[in-house]
Amino acid sequence: MATPRLYAGERLRALRRAAGLNQRAMAARLGLSVSYLSQLEGDERPLTAAVIAALARHHPQELAAIADEAPARRVAALAAALADPALAPLPPEAAVRLAEERPDIADRLIALHAAKRDAEERLAVAEETLVAGSDARLPWEAVRDWFHAAGNYVDPLDRAGEALAATLAAGGGIGETALAAALRDHGIAVATDDDGDAPLACDRPGLLVLAGALPPESRRFQIAHRLATLAFADPIAAVVAGSGLASVAARHLLELGLANYAAAALLMPYERYRAEARRVRHDIDRLSRVFGISFEQACHRLSTLQRPGAAGVPFYFCRVDMAGNITKRHSATRLQFARFGGACPLWHVHEAAAIPDRILVQQAETPDGVRYISMAKGLVKPSGRFTRAPRRFAVVLGCEASHAADFVYADAVDRTGAATPIGISCRLCSRADCDQRAFPPADRAIAVEPETRRIVPYRVV
Q1: 399, containing H or E segment
Q2: How far apart are alpha carbons 356 and 394 in whole angstroms?
Q3: In CATH, what is the architecture of 137-267?
Q4: Pair 419, 365: CB distance under 8 Å
């Protein structure tokens, strides 16, 4: 039986406007002409398989609202699975027909792809654990792994933060004054300590003391964090109780991390932040101004926008210190960070760390053939006094190249040109011809040939 034609002009137009795009930008994103998009929005043409496939790539959640939800989600999931470079390419129209005509086979392909991704992640963890040693999974790593397994999204806290933000905004906004007033309702006042040796924040009976050197966005975050520990004590305790973490230290660290998460959800409410991020094409400086947050806070929050049914663009985010250590990491993309050791030396985050307050953009390709667009910026957090060195690090935010139309930084690179060949880390990288190698790959043999001099003193075999 022929599939009924789907005319969805009004809903397609609403989707475009919600994304903050004009017809030219939306047409470019979907690979259409402006006139063809205009005809679709005017219900002069139905949505074809190719258009549905393009919507599945760029607007999977919104597609479910246009088409029947279950089939639309199947198309989106199948499109993601077939985008894996390990699979032979399939034309978008063929993928849509497969999802419509043989949903049983489509579901099996989706499940197989999910199992493949899970197996790859487990193998990477096993390899890194062998390299680092059996005692490597310390409490800090256990908590980072917990957030990674949760997709860096904690629904009860995210919704609770959004609800409290709506309450505070109804009274005039969620600036420092409103946050401090909400904290006073819990019996806690806010004070400032101008001693250069003071901690960032210190809890005393009935008092939250903040370091005088904190910039305004950090003051707001510290107040929001203290407010979250009180206002969301029960949901935080419930999440910790169900975490399965064995050590007391890990559970305390998780409790702290969840309060940080809730504070971010309060200062950057999910739906408003997601919509504004789409509108400005994830321009971090613009998001920072609109929400009164730091550059790092804006980047980190984007990596948590994975609410089921309303997910944002899948990003990876990490923070790297001057020694190359990854001190924060999360990825909603196929790129996964090394759990131990440093990052790939070809990654532009290292250059960014040495050049603060300058944004660098890179198009990179991992050994599996997937291309990414990433933005990195070096940051300096002042210490507040001459005798204490400031903190220097870099943050990086990136997405797969297929989302470049939603990422303003992609405009700075020629996406048809060459990409920098990067890996996860030298221990896990399969590239045999990299001149920047610090170590051989853990799963490959090497050949040392004294008669031949190379930049790297061995050959990967």
Answers
A1: strand 391-400
A2: 8
A3: Orthogonal Bundle (1.10)
A4: yes
Which two structure tokens, joined as six digits, stand for 230?
């009180």
**Token pair belonging to 424:** 């996860």
DSSP secondary structure code for residue 31 in this structure: T
What are φ and ψ of residue 65, in 5° steps?
A: -80, -20
- What ranges do the domains of the chain cover? 9-112, 137-267, 290-419, 430-461
10 Å Cβ neighbour count for 154?
Answer: 21
240 contacts 255 by C-beta, under 8 angstroms: yes
* Measured distance CA(275)–CA(262) in Å, rounded: 19
The C-alpha atoms of residue 319 and residue 396 are separated, in whole angstroms, by 6
Phi, psi at 360, each rounded to 5°? -110, 140
Q: What are the pLDDT digits (tens) for 234-286?
A: 999 999 999 999 889 999 999 999 999 999 999 999 999 999 999 999 999 99
Structure tokens at 391: 């903190």
| pLDDT 10s digits, 179-232 | 999 999 999 999 998 776 666 778 888 999 998 888 899 999 999 999 999 999
pTM of the model: 0.74
Task: Please state, in angstroms and rounded to a whole number, the distance separating the CA atoms of residues 110 and 116.
Answer: 10
CATH (residue range 290-419): 3.30.450
Side chain identity, residue 84:
D
Query: What's the angle, vertex CA 176, arms to CA 175 and CA 177, rounded to 5?
Result: 95
User: Locate tokens 């990003």: which residue?
Assistant: 315
- Answer yes or no: are the C-beta atoms of 81 and 109 closer than 8 Å: yes
**Residue 239 vs residues 115, 243, 262: alpha-carbon distances, Å:** 26, 6, 12
